[in-house]
Amino acid sequence: MTQGLHLNEVSHHYAEGSNRTTALDRVTMSVLPGEFVAVIGPSGSGKSTFLSIAGALLQASEGKVKLNETDLSSASAKDLSRIRLHEVGFIMQSSNLVPYLNVTEQLLIVKKLSGKVTKDDKAFAAQLLGELGLGGKLTQYPDQLSGGEKQRVAIARAFMNNPQVILADEPTASLDTKRAHEVVSLIAKEVKSRRKAAIMVTHDERMLAYCDKVYRMEDGRLSLSESRSALAEAVR
């Protein structure tokens, strides 16, 4: 079975009256388990559309999108909903924590969406939070956390359903340099140790050295930019 996330000649078009706008133009990419890649590019280049298609939020107009052996391009709305819940973990620009839930409950609510919470689920939530340096914050509420701590909770929540793919949309947008490095290094660590296929869309080129590959998107077209080793040299 082919593991990971695979896009093959994926295009997406939007209708604007009698005109057609191409947001993605024949995009091809493969991300394997344990691989952390970045997508960079100017605003309006198609990054948001790309991430929506990779995360089963939007279906491609043309081409194939496969998560392991599941073809997202032809999946039903019900199947896409299931895939988003169980197979994809999202980390957004804002942590989007629920203000009246404590840190542990932020993770367990993900399990409640797909059934009841078990002892194993509670133990896994505590394990994830401990790995991300939040072992002493399990019963605290969002207003008691720093910005970096909130984003770490969001990272843990993304891994809670043990998804196949992690998608991070500008995860450092609201963080200072120190916190940004902490957050992205933790994402990279979890991706490697848990063997997830992960994509980070970012404008923050300081974070690219944590990635295995970097792709650049312009006018809906995707091209491989630089290897991790070259980027690591560039930031020294």
**Strand residue content:** 25-35%
What would you report as the Rg, rounded to the nearest angstrom?
A: 18 Å
Tell me how many strands there are.
10
Order the strands across the largest sheet as they lie in space.
6-7-8-3-9-10
The coarse overall form would be: globular
Structural class per helix/strand content?
alpha/beta
- First-last Cα distance: 39 Å
Report the major sheet: 6 strands, mixed
Number of helices: 7
Counted up, domains total 1
Keywords:
236 residues; alpha/beta; Rossmann fold; 6-stranded mixed sheet; 4-stranded antiparallel sheet; 10 strands
Model description:
- The chain is α/β, with parallel strands linked by helices and 236 residues long.
- It has a single domain, classed as Rossmann fold, CATH 3.40.50.300.
- 34% of the residues lie in helices and 28% in strands.
- It is built from 7 helices and 10 strands.
- It has helices at residues 47-54, 77-86, 103-113, 119-131, 147-159, 177-194, 228-234, and strands spanning 5-16, 19-31, 36-40, 62-67, 70-71, 88-91, 165-169, 197-201, 213-218, 221-227.
- The strands form 2 sheets. Strands 6-7-8-3-9-10 form a 6-stranded mixed β-sheet.
- A hairpin with a 2-residue loop joins strand 9 (213-218) and strand 10 (221-227).
What's the SSE blueprint?
Layout: E1 5-16, E2 19-31, E3 36-40, H1 47-54, E4 62-67, E5 70-71, H2 77-86, E6 88-91, H3 103-113, H4 119-131, H5 147-159, E7 165-169, H6 177-194, E8 197-201, E9 213-218, E10 221-227, H7 228-234
Parallel strand pairs: 3-8, 3-9, 6-7, 7-8
Antiparallel strand pairs: 1-2, 1-4, 4-5, 9-10
Helix pairs in contact: 3-4, 3-5, 5-6
